[in-house]
């Protein structure tokens, strides 16, 4: 047991170094994260995701499986380290080698359940990512 503790610590430090490199290499990236929750998945995929700015990457959680074009191990680490998590959908951005996150669960469900205008939600998303352009909302 005592032999494995230093090995685990070494492996964790090695991973953290690679994760920091991932953050630096992807500086400026924006991620929209959502999951397979039945009451929201279809609406997100049909009405929100197609209207997101082209500078926003999609991260989909299919149960506990992360689906992304980026290294799944590093995206999983980012999701694990969320500081402002209060359910999905969630926004993440990488700035200056740091992960910044924000839940948009409440504004999203106001759109979904209270039939509020999705343009307001898309504007909040773009503001978080510091994007000015809003696609024509269909």
Q: Tell me the span between the first and last alpha carbons.
A: 59 Å
Indicate the radius of gyration in whole angstroms.
17 Å
Could you state the order of secondary-structure elements as H and E? HEHEEHEEHH
Structural classification: alpha+beta
SS strand fraction: 15-25%
> Into which percent range does the helicity of residues fall?
40-55%
Biggest β-sheet, characterized? 5 strands, mixed
The helix count comes to 5
pLDDT under 50 segments (min length 5)? none
Number of strands: 5
Task: Please identify the oligomeric state.
Answer: single chain
Walk me through the structure.
The protein is of the alpha+beta class. It contains five helices and five strands. A five-stranded mixed sheet has the order 3-2-1-4-5, with helices on both faces.
List keywords for this structure.
five-stranded mixed sheet, alpha+beta, 138 residues, single chain, globular, 5 helices
Concise summary:
The chain has helices spanning 4-25, 38-48, 72-80, 105-114, 118-129, and strands spanning 30-35, 56-62, 65-67, 90-95, 98-103. The chain is an alpha+beta fold and 138 residues long.
List the helices and strands and how they pair.
Elements: H1 4-25, E1 30-35, H2 38-48, E2 56-62, E3 65-67, H3 72-80, E4 90-95, E5 98-103, H4 105-114, H5 118-129
Parallel strand pairs: 1-2
Antiparallel strand pairs: 1-4, 2-3, 4-5
């Amino acid at each position: 047991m005592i032999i494995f503790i230093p090995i685990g610590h070494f492996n964790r430090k090695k991973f953290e170094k690679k994760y920091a490199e991932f953050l630096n290499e992807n500086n400026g990236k924006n991620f929209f994260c959502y999951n397979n929750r039945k009451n929201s998945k279809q609406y997100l995929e049909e009405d929100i995701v197609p209207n997101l700015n082209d500078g926003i990457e999609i991260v989909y959680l299919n149960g506990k499986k992360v689906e992304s074009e980026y290294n799944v191990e590093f995206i999983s680490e980012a999701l694990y380290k969320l500081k402002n998590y209060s359910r999905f959908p969630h926004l993440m951005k990488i700035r200056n080698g740091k992960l910044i996150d924000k839940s948009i669960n409440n504004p999203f469900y106001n759109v979904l359940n209270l039939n509020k205008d999705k343009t307001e939600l898309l504007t909040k998303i773009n503001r978080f990512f510091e994007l000015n352009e809003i696609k024509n909302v269909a």
